[in-house]
Design goal:
7-stranded mixed β-sheet; 25% strand; alpha+beta
C-alpha cells in the first residue's frame, strides 16, 4: 500500500502532525521504533502557553498527569540565587512516557495507522515517491514523508538536509526520573542552575505529579574537554550538592538514570527538500538556551501537516513547494530559536556574566519577572529585550553605580 503521508516518529512532533491530518481523507502512517508507552529520557517541562496554542487537543493534554509550578529558582555559577513567584503557573511538568502515549492514542482514535516496533533504516527519494525500508527489510511507500525521528534522524541524513552533528551543535544530558517515594522535592518549585561546575552547561530539578526529574547537561565538546568517567558520576555529584542545599532528599535510583543528546544549534538551514519535511529534534527545533523542545516539536509538526495536506491536494511535493513549511516555522519560532543560540553562546560561555545577571535580578523585581518569563517561554527574546530596555536599564545603571561607589570607598 502506498501512503499519502508517512510520519517517522510517534513523539509530539509526529503525533501532532498526524492529528492535524485526521479527517482529511489522506492515507497516513506513523512508524516508530518503540512500542508505546515507552521510556523517553527528557526533562519533561512544557510552557503553559501550550494549552492556548493547541486548544484543539486541550482535553488530551489535560488528561495527562501534570504538575504545575509557579515558583522558579535560578542559581549562577558562583552560587548566587534568585527566586521568582507568580500567581499563575509557569511550567507544566509531565512524564514523557505518559504525555507521548496520550498523543499517539489520540492519533489511533482518529483512524491513523500506526506501526510500532518498526525502525526505519533507509529513506530513499525518487521521482515516484519515497521508499522507507525498516531494519527488518520491510518496505513502506509514500508520496511525502515527515521526519519526526529525533536527534538521530535517518530522514535528515538520508535526505541530505544535514550530515553528522558536530560536538558544538549538540548537548549531552544525564537525567533521572524517579518516583517521589524515593526522592522528595518542593512540589511547586523548579530549580535551574546555569554554568554548573564552571562548565558550559546547566542543571535542573523538575517536580512531577508523582515523580522527580533532575539532571545536568553540557555542550558535548565542553563535556569532553572538562570531564572524564561516566556521566552518572557527575549526576551523583550534582545530587550531593542538591541534598546539601536542602533541595532534594532521598537517594538516586541508578536504573532510572539515562543519557541522551539534543540539538542546541537552532533549526537546520533547510528543514525540507523534495518529498521530505523535518519536524521536532530532527530539524533542530530546540531552544538552545533553555533546552526546551516539546513545544517547538508540536509547532513544527502542525506546520508540517498543513504543508503536507496542501502538497498532496495540489500534487506538488517538490522542494520549492515545501519551502513554505520552512517559512511557516521560521515565522512562528525560527527567530526565537536562533536568538536562543546567540544567548546560549553569550551567557553559558561567560560565568561572570551569568553571575551579574542573577545578582542584578535579585535586586530588581522587574528583572526577575523578565528572566522567569523568558526562560519559560512566556516572552520572546525580542519582547524581553524591549522590556529590559524600558524597565531594567535604569536599575542596571544604578546597580553599576553602586558597585563603583562601593569599590571607591574600600580603597
Amino acid at each position: 500500500m502506498k501512503y499519502d503521508v508517512a510520519i517517522i516518529g510517534g513523539g509530539p512532533a509526529g503525533s501532532i502532525a498526524a492529528i492535524n491530518l485526521i479527517g482529511a481523507g489522506l492515507r497516513v502512517l506513523i512508524l516508530d521504533r518503540a512500542r508505546f508507552p515507552r521510556l523517553k529520557p527528557c526533562g519533561g517541562g512544557i510552557r503553559c502557553s501550550v494549552y492556548k496554542r493547541f486548544q484543539y487537543i486541550e482535553p488530551v493534554l489535560r488528561s495527562v498527569p501534570t504538575n504545575f509550578v509557579n515558583k522558579i529558582v535560578f542559581e549562577s555559577p558562583s552560587g548566587s540565587a534568585v527566586k521568582f513567584e507568580s500567581p499563575d503557573p509557569f511550567y507544566a511538568m509531565v512524564r514523557r512516557l505518559e504525555f507521548d502515549n496520550a498523543l499517539l492514542n489520540e492519533c489511533k482514535r482518529g483512524g491513523i495507522e500506526v506501526a510500532e516496533a518498526t525502525t526505519i533504516a533507509r529513506v530513499a527519494v525518487d521521482a515516484g515517491g519515497v521508499t522507507l525500508t525498516s531494519s527488518s527489510g520491510e518496505e513502506f511507500f509514500a508520496e511525502l514523508v515527515i521526519g519526526a525521528d529525533g536527534v538521530n534522524s535517518v530522514a535528515a541524513v538520508h535526505s541530505g538536509l544535514r550530515g553528522p552533528w558536530k560536538p558544538a551543535q549538540i548537548a549531552i544530558d544525564g537525567t533521572e526520573e524517579t518516583p517521589s517515594s524515593d526522592l522528595q522535592v518542593r512540589h511547586d518549585t523548579m530549580f535551574i542552575y546555569y554554568g554548573i561546575g564552571g562548565a558550559y552547561g546547566y542543571g535542573y530539578v523538575f517536580p512531577k505529579e508523582r515523580h522527580v526529574n533532575f539532571g545536568i547537561g553540557y555542550l558535548l565538546e565542553d563535556y569532553k574537554r572538562n570531564f572524564s568517567g561516566e556521566p552518572y558520576i557527575q549526576h551523583l555529584n550534582f545530587l550531593g550538592q542538591l541534598k546539601r542545599a536542602g533541595i532534594i532528599s532521598g537517594n538516586s535510583q541508578p536504573e532510572n538514570f539515562h543519557t541522551y543528546v539534543l540539538p542546541v544549534a537552532g533549526p537546520l538551514q533547510r528543514v525540507s527538500s523534495s518529498r521530505i519535511m523535518l519536524a521536532g529534534d530532527a530539524g533542530g527545533f530546540v531552544n538552545g538556551f533553555t533546552g526546551e523542545g516539546i513545544y517547538y516539536a508540536m509547532v513544527s509538526g502542525e506546520h508540517a501537516a498543513r504543508t503536507a495536506l496542501e502538497a498532496i491536494r495540489q500534487k506538488n511535493t517538490s522542494g520549492d513547494f515545501l519551502l513554505r513549511y520552512d517559512k511557516a516555522c521560521d515565522m512562528e519560532v525560527g527567530r526565537e530559536l536562533r536568538r536562543s543560540v546567540t544567548l546560549q553562546k553569550r551567557l553559558l560561555s561567560n560565568p561572570k556574566l551569568i553571575d551579574t545577571v542573577v545578582r542584578f535580578a535579585s535586586r530588581s523585581k522587574s528583572v526577575r519577572s523578565l528572566l522567569a518569563n523568558f526562560v519559560v517561554g512566556a516572552l520572546s527574546y525580542e519582547e524581553m529585550k524591549r522590556q529590559a530596555i524600558i524597565k531594567a536599564l535604569p536599575g542596571y545603571i544604578h546597580y553599576q553605580a553602586e558597585k563603583i561607589s562601593y569599590k571607591l570607598t574600600r580603597k
